[in-house]
Amino acid sequence: MRRDGGSYRDPSGYVFYQDARVYRAILKRAQADYEAVRDIPLVRELIRDGTIIGSRELEPEQASRLAPEAAYVVEHDPVPFISYPYEWPFALLQRAARFHLDLQLRLLEAGVMLSDATAYNVQFLGSRPVFIDLLSLRPYRDGELWLGHHQFMQQFMHPLLLNALAGVSYNNWYKGNLDGIRRGELVRCLPVTKRLSRRVFKQVILPQMIETEYHDEASNSTAKAAPARLDKATLMALLRDLDDWIGTLSPKTVAGTTWSDYERTRTYNAAEIDEKRAVVAEFARKHTPPVLWDIGCNTGEFSELALQSGCGRVIGFDLDEGALHLACERAEKNRLDLLPLSMDLLNPSAGCGWLGAERKALVDRDLPDAIMALALIHHLAIAGNVPLGEAVAWLVSLAPRGIIEFVHKTDETVRRMLRFREDIFDDYHEEAFRTHLEAEAVILERQEVSASGRSLYIYQRR
User: Fold this and answer.
1) Is there a contact between 405 and 459 (Cβ–Cβ < 8 Å)?
2) Cα–Cα distance, 29 to 344 (Å, whole number)
3) CA 411/CA 268 separation, integer angstroms
4) Which domain-ending residue is among 28, 51, 76?
5) Which of 3, 53, 216, 438 sits a CA distance of 20 to 30 A from 450?
């Protein structure tokens, strides 16, 4: 049995793994709440339709063997790839936020409350969100406050507002503070004109003022505050108002990014694009990888092609926010099993949180069956100064097979990269690339796909 490093905070239970299966132990302190909600028709319906992760209660004898201290053990459907809010582009964080609010509203109608509002309770199957924490569901108590409000604002709302109103990307900030963007930090980033808007004042500025006053009073008093109350209708109105507001937000950091207009401005012609597409399609048809990582996925054009040609699922990685926004739109519009994530390949997600294991490093999650690195290697080796051999070895280490595109210095894209810097990259040429690749893998095929000599290498790891 292997316990999940991210479930230590919940005193009601924990997630563990055995033989590639996912289980949740429900401890005795959560037994009554679990029994109260598990048979509610809406909860069963939400599990059946995939809104809540698939869950099956084990027989007592099997449960006691796996977790003797638990009142119940539930087996969950596995999530194929775990991602984190700090890796989600704006479109996915926005979708996850509205999904969470909609779920809470539906549950309230059935007398169920979510005990918290952490963004980590949402995962994505392709671009479709799913709620994964069964233990967050408990009976609603008449008049109770929304205890998850502060958490929702910090982990969902504040990052979205930081981007939409201040034009500041949240991903690296969020990665550095796993609990999200604090209210005071957001307020200091907002332009004065934005602070005066009705919704910002009501949902951000006023709570900040009340919180400051409360802490000042609390520090001078030992008296326990009287419990506040909030009727269900007012609570639901608050949730709907937040949902409406989130729906009006749009990312300010996506317009005019380097690669957001890539499909129109790329430096090779239609015939060359068709040749490149043919190689990718044939690779997907021949190998039919269940999981493909599209490293440098851009707008998801080749991810979609790989899916159409036999690939089962694609996880895409890019850093350009404009391109990722278009990839998210493509995934949702065409209902693709594509999850586009924000990832700086020169600084990929590391293990972090408690003991460095609460959130897993990228390379410690489920690795793919194949990778695709199109028009990427020059960004690592030239823009990022990564030694060419190290870049090749890292890519090959991720999957047993793949495609890597080599782009020559004579290519217009590389010439632009070198326009304002010294060319110190003596080792960056195709012969060296091929030598490095052959040290790690068997080259199955090389296909030149452009007049500038761009070449696709298909390989099998040794």
Assistant:
1) no
2) 42
3) 9
4) 76
5) 438
Is 254 domain-assigned?
no
- Give the number of domains in the chain: 3
Quick: pLDDT tens for 327-343. Answer: 999 999 999 999 999 99
Structural domain ending residue among the three candidates 76, 97, 121: 76
d(CA 343, CA 277): 24
Residue 52 to residues 20, 43, 77, Cα–Cα distance (Å): 20, 8, 10
In the chain, the percentage of residues whose pLDDT exceeds 90 is: 80
Residue 440 lies in a domain: yes
pTM of the model: 0.92
One-character DSSP codes across 308-356? HTT-SEEEEEE--HHHHHHHHHHHHHTT-SEEEEE--TTSPPPPBSGGG
Residue 310 has pLDDT above 60, yes or no: yes
Q: What is the pLDDT of residues 391-441, one digit of tens each?
A: 999 999 999 999 999 999 999 999 999 998 899 999 999 999 999 999 999
CATH number at residue 446: 3.40.50.150
Position 257 in a domain: no
108/98 Cα distance (integer angstroms): 15
Give the range of the structural domain holding residue 171, as residue numbers without chain letter.
85-248
pLDDT bin (cut points 50, 70, 90) of residue 344 is very high
Q: Which two tokens stand for residue 287?
A: 């190998």
Task: Please tell me whether residues 182 and 153 are part of one structural domain.
Answer: yes
- Based on the domain organization, do 329 and 420 belong to the same domain? yes
The H-or-E segment that residue 70 falls in is strand 70-76
